Sequence to fold (83 residues):
Amino acid sequence: MFIEKNVPLVPVKRTGPKVGNCKTGRLASRLEVGDSIFVPVKGKIKPTTSTTVRSRFMYHGKKLGHTYAVRVVDGGVRLWRTA
Fold:
């Protein structure tokens, strides 16, 4: 082992999701106010299903300054961009 001087610090590689790098982020960035998407659910809709959809979009919405409304509808979950 030895000491080295003037070696530049390597930047940290972020591995977490960024807006636009995953399917949810791309959808969130393309939604305009009043647009909605339908997430089909097979079988019985669990109470956590709408919570999961909401949390995925709210994560990206915070970065984009968007707000959303989520409702359970026949056959799945629908999400609207409200602002």
Remarks:
- The CA atoms of residues 39 and 77 lie 5 Å apart.
- The longest helix spans residues 47-64.
- Strands lie at 36-40, 68-73, 76-81.
